[in-house]
Each structure stands twice: as C-alpha cells, then as structure tokens.
TrEMBL record:
It comes from Anaerosolibacter carboniphilus. Transmembrane segments: none annotated. PANTHER family: MU-LIKE PROPHAGE FLUMU PROTEIN C (PTHR37812:SF1). This is Mor family transcriptional regulator. Residues 12-90 form the Mor transcription activator domain. It comes from the Bacteria.
Length: 97
C-alpha cells in the first residue's frame, strides 16, 4: 500500500473538510467491501502456503513421519497434523465433486 497526497486525488473542498477532523495525520481509507482482497493475495504468501501444505501432505502419504516433517518445515507436530487433516478434507471434497 502506498500513500497518496489527498490534494492529488480528492477535490480541495473534501480535503479541507477532512482536515477539520484529521489535520496532518495519516488516514486509512479501506477498500470497498466487494473489492477487498484476502490475506496473502498480493504478496503470494497464500499460494506459497498452499503449495507447502500440499507438499507436506504428499510426503506424509509417501510415508514421511510427522515429527520429521515438523523438523523439516520448522513447525510443531500439532501444526503438521492440522495441515494433514485439512489436506485430507480438501482431497475428499475434490473426489466427491
């Protein structure tokens, strides 16, 4: 997210009205609800975690031990179990469609 000078994007009258409430401070204007993005969409973090979780699940299916996966991915064994459980559900949903 970058900052924009209000004078470059808003009419002068609106800038002056806003200054009555927030004079010289930073003001965050959220996106319209229908245009909001989910966490990680811009940075690619969401896709990276999805790929990582799929990889963990595939290794588990091929016989990898949960504690070894936890060490390899720097996660707790509880997190690995949660990922495996989530991936099982995803695969069940894909296969039943």
């Amino acid at each position: 997210m970058k900052y924009s000078n209000a004078y470059n994007v808003l009419p002068v009258d609106i800038v002056r009205m806003i200054q009555e409430y927030v004079n010289g401070e930073y003001l965050y204007i959220p996106r319209k609800e229908e245009q909001q993005k989910k966490w990680g969409e811009n940075s690619g973090s969401r896709d990276a975690l999805k790929r990582r979780n799929e990889e963990i699940y595939q290794k588990y299916l091929k016989g990898a031990v949960i504690l070894d996966l936890a060490q390899e991915y720097y996660l707790s064994d509880k997190s690995i179990r949660r990922i495996i459980s989530q991936q099982k559900k995803i695969m069940l949903n894909i296969n039943t469609e």
